[in-house]
Specification:
Elements (H helix, E strand, L loop, with lengths): L3 H15 L4 E5 L3 E3 L3 H17 L3 E5 L12 H10 L4 E10 L2 E9 L5 E9 L5 H14 L14 H4 L8 E13 L10 E13 L4 E11 L2 E13 L5 E15 L5 E14 L6 E11 L22 E10 L1
Parallel strand pairs: 1-3, 1-4, 2-4
Antiparallel strand pairs: 4-5, 5-6, 7-8, 7-14, 8-9, 9-10, 10-11, 11-12, 12-13, 13-14
């Protein structure tokens, strides 16, 4: 029976851990603000049960005089730990404001140093039991209670969706002009293309974002743009300058076959009437294509004169949003 000796050796190694005595701790009566005394007594009982259920602690209740309405200090908890011959003095504080209650746990060594501090918010009275359960487990495992949620211990506060800022939306029309340099047809002067478009501007207070579509033609050239823009407002007032940029999908034709692709744009502008339901928007920018336009061929397949270029140039616009 050669297997018996290793088995007995393993059992001998495991036995000390399996029979390890629970750690004695002194639990002071719960204190609170805007909480009924009966609820504090019930919280103390429930928390004691949750601490014992972890299997790590032997809970020794401190005298009732150690509690009260005022939260015990570190010195009070340390004195309770020494009086109970315990390794820790544990305090529990419940502060209710409206329907929610902040539940704070403090654990202090006999010398008054902090061993563990944790806090969790209960969104309703029904939340208190899972909150106390997670605080007890956090003390036993040395982890924050907020990271110990399980299917049956998620609180009402944690299940609520986060509140978010409401962004305002402005639809607008604009007219503008653009100058396209590096024309495929070799003309040194920039192509001046004019036209207009529509935009949807979203104001999220700390930043602005827009979606726009524009069509510009002229001088034998054409620019069609579908773009996204992101801007930083420099004022919270009715007159709000801004700076930013964006990316767009451009289709350009400057004397060649025309081509399309992504383009980058830097821009700055001014919103007149940011706090109003009607706004005037003035903007200037500069766009650079990330693609190249080639001369192409005529209807007979003969290559046309010109060179492959990368169109770029400034843009100016005035818009009305409502």
């Amino acid at each position: 029976m050669t297997w018996l000796r290793p088995l007995l050796l393993s059992l001998a190694l495991v036995a000390p851990f399996a029979t390890r005595a629970a750690e004695p701790i002194a639990l002071l009566p719960a204190t609170g603000a805007n909480v009924h005394e009966g609820h504090l007594a019930a919280a103390t009982d429930v928390f004691r049960s949750q601490l014992e259920r972890t299997g790590r602690f032997e809970v020794r209740l401190a005298p009732a005089g150690a509690g009260g309405r005022d939260e015990p200090t570190a010195a009070d908890a340390a004195a309770a730990a020494r009086a109970a011959n315990a390794t820790l003095g544990v305090t529990l504080r419940i502060s209710r404001l409206g329907e929610a209650a902040a539940v704070r746990l403090g654990a202090y060594r006999p010398d008054g140093t902090v061993a563990h501090v944790d806090e969790l918010t209960a969104g309703s009275p029904d939340d208190l039991e899972p909150v106390l359960r997670r605080l007890a487990r956090g003390l036993a495992e040395g982890q924050p209670a907020r990271s110990l949620a399980e299917l049956d211990s998620v609180t009402l506060r944690e299940s609520d969706p986060y509140l978010k800022y409401a962004a305002t939306q402005v639809f607008g029309l604009r007219l503008g002009t653009a100058f396209l340099y590096d024309r495929v047809d070799g003309v040194s002067e920039p192509a001046n293309v004019s036209g207009g478009g529509v935009f949807w501007l979203y104001d999220a207070r700390s930043f602005l974002a827009d979606v726009s579509f524009d069509l510009h033609t002229g001088d034998g050239a054409r620019l069609i743009s579908l773009a996204l823009g992101f801007y930083r407002p420099l004022s919270k007032g009715n007159l709000a300058p801004y700076l930013g940029g964006g990316v767009g999908y451009h289709w350009t034709e400057t004397g060649g076959a025309g081509d399309s692709g992504l383009a980058l744009r830097a821009a700055g502008g001014l919103i007149i009437g940011r706090l109003s339901s009607v706004q005037v928007r003035v903007e200037a920018g500069y766009q650079v294509s990330l693609f190249k336009e080639s001369p192409g061929t005529d209807f007979l397949g003969t290559p046309q004169a010109g060179s492959t270029t990368r169109p770029h140039g400034p843009l100016l616009s005035v818009g009305l949003g409502f």
